[in-house]
FAD-binding protein (Adlercreutzia wanghongyangiae), 628 residues
Amino acid sequence: MNVSRRDLLKGSAVLGAGLAATAGLSVLPGCAPAAGSSDKAGDSALANSGAGNPNDHYQTGIDWLGTPPEISDDEVTATFDGDIIVCGGGNSGIQAALAAAEGGAKVHVLESSAEEFRRVKGRDVGHVNSQWLINQGFGPYDEGAIVNEFMLRCGGRNNAEIVKRYVYNSGETFDHMISLVSWPDERIKPVNRSSQEISPIDPSAMYVPQAAGALDGPVEYPVSQGGFKTWASTASAVGEISHMFGDESGIGENDYSRWDEIQQFSILKGQDLGAEWHYEQRARCLITDDSGAVVGVYAENADGTYTRYNAATGVILCTGDFGADVNMAWALLAEHSELAARAGKSPEDLRPESFCEGEGHKMACWLGAQIEPLPRPVMTYYWTGAPWGTVPYLWLNSEGKRFMNEAAVSNAWATGIRQPVGPTCTISDSKWFDVLKRGGIELGSPNAGRPDYVLEMKEDVDNVPVGDPNGARCRDSVECERAPHIVYKADTIEELLGFMGFSDEAIKEATASVERYNELCYQGHDADFDKDDKFMSPIDEPPYIGAFFENERWKGIGLVCLTGLITDSHLQVLDGDGKKIPGLWAAGNCLGGRYGTGYVTPIAGNSIGMAITHGRVAGKVATGQEVR
């Protein structure tokens, strides 16, 4: 996405144009009550708590929260009554609405986009112990071990009960979803480039990503790597494989997913049960009764007027993240904004691939809810600029120095971004493919769930000309898009590093680093960083291969912000004292406690997996159904 860059960061104290400081603000005014409007749950008032004041509860000088809109009765053009109002019709909102409707509730779903443009993101659905997975030989797994691994990777900064709700309920959620798929169905809007004669859950269209060792036979999970464990526990709904797609080289992107087609069946089922979808409705302000319970929401219509939705039971917030509000992202995602500021960047540079503006977060905070404390997670993970992804070869920074245990991929982003500016590379030798097959299925690892991905990458790397300073394009073995990456090949380490832009001084240091690494490999143990012995293969048989990326010591947010509201174990939103706000639940990217430090997870695709699962859990608990 191309965005304008503004010079907002002159000196250490300047916040920048358009970012208002709010020192001294003590009370946030609420929405003006809509006089005479219908309220099935009792006399109503609107959120007017000052507990959300960012200067009181957040270490930022930016008023990212603002004040609730003042809504008068003459701006309300329609009123709807129901039991559950679901704010947001994405991955979590779809499943929340379906579960609530299955629980007998009258449901209204408020979706900000027009119906013709409604589409969920993503393709990989991480989940645990679905019958679909077990039937293919993946599981059943120890659910408690997976919960513990999530906590380990996040340093205990996430909420074990929130993670448990995901792990223990995700299999049932996934099986329930795909049980609704009955192909073909003329009501389903097809995804571009998909083969409509094939069901989106056909084995040719949806598969399980696996560790590269599967090329030689079955892999036993979990796979341990760098002190962390990974499980093959993801459904990838990417459609039939495309071996070549794109430009004249025959190597390009094939980026589409059939996940939305699957989700449409859940929308239709919910509608069959009476759920009503309201498009171009952006939730703006929660309505409370005299006790402080949430009893409805005001939504803004496309023409700027409002619709009132009354909720006899409550509201489920599924409005997504807050990435499109760049001031909010800059204020709350402190690690990223600090790194960006030090690199001379502005809030616009931090913008993720999101159109969500944090409405759910703000509406809850106006009621006294709080967003999880620092460190606030975003979807960051390490990428090496190589078609083989995060294989634990030797990694060198721009000074030619080794800097970490390369197998500990969960630590790689935080460690790598702190290295000196310039090229960071991964290098190996003619034994590279043998090392590749020893790893797990970490995010960014080679994916042998479809062997073509890895085998065609190997074919491309094998065909890279030795000694060509331009290198050659090779298909990605990690993602379904098959996006190309440049790989270099040379007869000497010095020549290889020269192709990748290393300075003479760095090449000298890198040569010493390779010699030290080989010494450790010959000894059979990494005494420097304790990388797993199975990855310690000496780099001593040319030709040598390598790929690199430019480390700029900052990074944008990525696909999405993962920071959300503090809730209890049943996803009910809490106030600043840790007490439940009656009638208010959160799911998807409105929900905090999932990641703690970032997207460092033992199962790929769990952002969507958590969204659909927590959405279903929220819909169930709000209507009194049992959850694990």
